[in-house]
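Lecture 7, part B: from sequences to assemblies.

Below are the input chains for today's worked example.
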Amino acid sequence: MSTVASPEELYCHNVLRPGNTNCAGCGMSIGLRWLDEALDGEKPTMVIPACCGIVTAGAFPTTAFGVPTAASTFASAAAVASGISNVYELNGESNVVVCWTGDGGTYDIGVATLSAAAERNENVLYICYDNEIYGNTGGQRSSATPEGVVTSTTPKGKSERKKDMMAIMAGHRIPYAATLSVAHRDDFLRKIRTARKTSGFRFLLMLSPCPTGWKSDPEESIDLISYAVRSGLFPLYEIFDGIRYRLNERPDGMPVEEYVTRQRRYTKVPTDVAPLKSYIEDQWRYLDAMAKAFPADGGVNPCHRIPSEDHDRKGE
Amino acid sequence: MKADPAGVLTGAHYLDGDFACGEGAMAAGCRFTAGYPITPSTEVVERIARRFPTMGGLFIQMEDEMASMAAIVGASWTGTKTLTVTSGPGFSLMMENIGLAVMMETPCVVVNVQRGGPSTGLPTMTGQADMMQARWGSHGDYEIIALSPQSPQEAFDLMIDAFNLAELYRVPVLFMMDECVGHMTEKVVIPPAEEIEIVPRTLTSVPPGEYWPYHVNGKYVPEFARAGDGYRFHTTGLTHDERGYPDMSAECQEKCVHRLLEKIKNNADKIVRFDEEQTDGADVVVVSYGITARVARMGVDLARKKGLKVGIIRLIVVWPFPEKRIRELAGNIKAFVVPEINYGQMVLEVERCAAGQASAICVPHGGGGVHDPNDICEAIVRAAK
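Predicted structure of the full complex, as structure tokens:
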């Protein structure tokens, strides 16, 4: 008899199972697999609102989720997760409840339930895979879409800047918030583990490459995210208790053009990167000021009820 | 008045129902649209977002459907013709603000490209199961106007009517398409602007200072004062008197709500529209609407080949319902056969109006597709016995 496990035996209890219909080069697929890995065998309860995550990864017979999964309405992931998490607690059951949502369900229609759950400090791990577009309905702008991007509802390019969701979540003084990059695997896994070991509301924001929506080459997805981090467009950082900042990686001088010109969603030719450069500059001035005034390492816990020093050292 | 040529794409086109619906709105004079992406309706606003800049219109993508509906109510109070577009889940989220528009008497149009439900249901596939929600979805007593096109050409034509009815009766008009019509591509002929009749907003002639927002002067519908024109007006979702001020009394409630009902009920003969065919001497009459009307026609043809006498009523205006005609027919026929892509909604209205004189037979379909015409034929055969 063969002792080699079949693929079904190997993968059937994974968060994301093989056979799903996610696009090639989709960041969400990588994120789900790394979430699984970082939970070190613990099986989460997933709450997923309307988004690619519940469609391309969730339809029979290409059912992908090997853990309990509740598909919520578009606006309600954080509220459904609040219900599940509270009853787990009431019953004395230990389980990690994960909201897995797109940017539309986080930045736009879901922001009310997200804000309320964060304010109540619900014991929920909320992860937004942000592809900066309504991918599931064919590519309309969201408030996560960067300035200048052409979508089907911004035919002349979006005129507003991307909403700063991390700052909004920090304003709720939640115990832990961090940004995730699929080009920085160790950092990604460490942050999931830190979040797992922290109780209360945790918010993780992942920039998720979307070759279909970004009109980019699927094989360049990881490179694109790397360029976004290295150019300073997508900073990697953590916020503890909503006030103490740790910056994980500084821009290395990579021109933002490397990122922009590899996607056809920035269609102004030649692409005008001045707005993006000023966005990067403003963002880093803000983050540097916060990290200097309120450093995570060696700083004092100013306001939150969750003791939080050394979150991530314990996690490692 | 005639349509503004800037919004009229005169000519023969090959369009799907969603695009034709968007063209109809622009031809009708709509210049403000607020919406939120939802399959299978998004193409309507995508068309509008691309075309609006050429005619001075404005599309805003809102953060959800509650905001979309609220934005068109607000924009309508500037005197602009406004539209929002959605499908089932979004339609549910709009319900509170549809009630607000009814109570404030705000002209606007809401398109629902119906898909399979309940809840998320079948996002990319057809349904007709929101017909009773269109009638009763918001809380409280009210009357509403709803239309249902059977083709892309009608999606264009009826959008003009929808905007005109919204202005005439100061009521949100619900445009109940279905995914099949929305995503079906056919020839659509858009006439020259001078051939399109448009009902403008009825602005008040009363000078500022003497104007009462809900004083109807013996008519059913009050005259409108635009925000920004110097009139002091007060509009509210609370029960209000003729001045627009809240009045929490049973007497005021009676007066306020009664007129909201009467302005539609007492004009129902003018609003109701349906196609009628070969009902004289018929034993069975098939009542249908939207894409199902086209499938039902095939079922009727099959039944007629068997020698059966079958008439057709195709609802164009769905609400208000053609009560009088159904009552008249009920005395002369054996049965109504009502195919629809739900488990029996408009058939309840047919049954109510038939009042036991003729039976009302539902031919249900759960959604995700259309009927097999043979099933409709079989129902007709059974009904004729």
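Note for the exam: The radius of gyration of chain B is 21 Å. Keep this in mind when comparing with the next example.
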